[in-house]
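Appendix B, record 7
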Amino acid sequence: MYNAGDEINASLELIRSFDMKNLIEANKKSKNKYLKVINFYYNKIMCALDENDESYFFEMKKFFDKNYDLFDKQEQHNAIISLANYCAHKMRLGQDKFLKILFEINKLRLEKEIGVYMHGRINKALFHQILRSALSLGKIKWAEKFAKGYIPKLRNEHQKTMASLALGYISFAKKDYAESLHHLNKVQFIDLRDKLHVRILSAKAYYELNNTEALTYYIDSSRHFFRKNTAIENDTGKAYVKFFNFLNKLLICKENPDPQKLKLLRENIDIDKILRLRHKSWLLGKIDEQLSS
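Structure tokens (predicted):
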């Protein structure tokens, strides 16, 4: 999220230099009673080293789902974060099947209280991720129940802001766009991520309300914000600028209907590798609505 630089290359090269597969085979031959746990960590490491081979992830998840109680609280916390982060990364690459998998991981996380609380409070980033993932699957009632139950479990100074943001998301999911903007305008930014979330959701709400004047200004100010703010990680900044560029083109097509331009825009959005999955899906849906009208 933040442009903090890449400090992990040396660690990755060190791990790649180990012959871990041979280690697993040696433990199989010796019938090590901890083989399954060793294999779990092997799969966890390989998820980072070879993210294209999804079998490592599914093997790790399968073992953890059945044997999470073998690990202490800290290791449960580490494992569940690794599983969730893998899903989030795959979703950023456009693989929407991992959205449902992430939702199931979140349900296990909450049910068993695995890595949910720090000093008795749920982290605001985790709260946001769980809420948004549920709403992306259309699970509005589940999300409402989650928000009601867990807003009081946030840090006191985060509760008001996250309540407003949650109600903004939920109202948007219910297609009450004016109400969504009402809540988003109450969000008091705690960190940079809050600004990113509010800008994207507000832009979508303005579009749904056909408020062209406000949206035109909002697109321009948002593109300027993302290009100027050097604290935003490069890929994140590019993805958000891409969204507002595509949204601007979509708005132009909406004001001046042209099926051929719309189809070309749809093709460009569909093949784009930078745009985030949720944003891509929404844009494609809006284009399809125009084409069918």
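Remarks on this record: Residues 234-255 form the longest helix (22 residues). The beta strands are 117-118, 121-122.
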